[in-house]
Design a protein that fits this description.
Elements (H helix, E strand, L loop, with lengths): L2 E7 L3 H12 L3 E8 L6 H14 L7 E3 L42 H11 L4 E5 L4 H9 L3 H4 L2 E5 L14 H5 L1 H9 L5 E4 L1 H4 L4 E2 H9 L3 H20 L7 E2 L2 H10 L4 E6 L1 E3 L10 E3 L11 E7 L1 H13 L3
Parallel strand pairs: 1-2, 1-4, 2-3, 4-5, 5-6, 6-12
Antiparallel strand pairs: 7-8, 9-12, 10-11
């Protein structure tokens, strides 16, 4: 039986691959996508999400637009990843046709609160962008955490950051929101940080395999991941030549197949004050803090199985 999932995204390239994986794999019933300010301003995240869903024939999946800025930091300098050469926002960064479908009239936070309040079946919440929408739901509905049976967060880092030496982008972009989420007492919280996603790199050669599938999803995934490889080769070269992590898709993959990642049960908190460490996920790997574990933290991933999951799903053979 397919698992019901809500995917919270700031679509971008790796989010787009995650959306396609969640929308097309038969083990997932994608209830809806919510969007949040992050890689690009939220209206472009919404448009990209709609375009990706339409492109793969899943325009029936509703998209709800969420919050347009971090929870507490009005002037927090969130970098915009998808810029053109002049530095302007580039809403057409994803090379798929314009959307035919439209966003829903209800906002993301209201949708999240009301959907989990009315749920008669378990729904897995998978945020793969900044955690602003989730924190807002926690603030507006004191019972929200208890109504979410499982949450899988892509974000954070223990050994390496990608936006500062200490921090990963999603957590850094709204550290107060992330701190709220990790302190909320979710019954089952899995964290998929950079430590795991950098163990599941996709290579240029594998992009060619995706392209050769000839399907809308395969060709789009090849384009999205290929763009990421160029960016990482230029700015954050990986240990494997001409490769890239596809962070958000690994989080979705772990919902389909939990054995894709290797986890440890640990306590996670988020730094919101340090000048050099704001947005760092403080993962207590040696139990020095005396706090009870609150998350299953992924430190490893099976790269071969992850790519096979993408390949089979986008071929229509999952």
């Amino acid at each position: 039986m397919a698992r019901k999932v809500i995917l919270d995204v700031d679509t971008g390239t790796d989010d787009a691959v995650a959306v396609m994986l969640a929308a097309l794999h038969p083990a997932i019933d994608l209830v809806g996508c919510t969007t949040v300010n992050g890689n690009i301003p939220v209206q472009y995240c919404t448009d990209n999400t709609l375009r990706v869903l339409d492109h793969i024939g899943r325009g029936d999946i509703p998209v709800y637009e969420g919050l347009s800025r971090p929870l507490a930091r009005l002037d927090f300098p969130v970098p915009r990843r998808e810029r053109d050469s002049s530095g302007k926002y580039h809403p057409d960064a994803l090379p798929v046709p314009a959307a035919v479908s439209s966003k829903q009239g209800v906002g993301a936070v209201e949708f999240l609160i009301e959907t989990f309040r009315a749920a008669t079946e378990e729904i897995v919440l998978v945020p793969v962008g900044p955690l602003t929408n989730i924190a807002a739901a926690l603030a507006l509905d004191p019972g929200f955490a208890k109504r979410v049976p499982e949450i899988v967060v892509m974000g954070g880092a223990h050994a390496l950051g990608n936006v500062t030496p200490s921090a990963e982008f999603n957590i850094w972009a709204d550290p107060e929101a992330a701190a709220m989420v990790f302190a909320a007492g979710f019954e089952k919280l899995t964290l998929v940080p950079l430590d795991a996603t950098h163990r599941a790199l996709v290579t240029k050669t594998q992009c060619e395999e995706l392209e050769a599938l000839g399907t809308p999803a395969g060709q789009a995934a090849a384009a999205f991941i290929g763009h990421r490889i160029v960016v990482h080769d230029t700015h954050q070269r990986q240990d494997v030549p001409h490769s890239t992590p596809v962070h958000d898709a690994l989080a979705v993959g772990s919902v389909i197949d939990p054995s894709l990642i290797g986890t440890r049960r640990l306590h996670v908190a988020v730094e919101t004050q340090g000048a050099l460490t704001v947005g760092r996920t403080v993962i207590d790997t040696h139990f020095r803090g005396g706090q009870a574990p609150n998350a299953d933290v992924a430190f490893d991933a099976d790269a071969a199985r992850f790519f096979e999951l993408l390949l089979r799903t986008f071929a229509g053979k999952a």
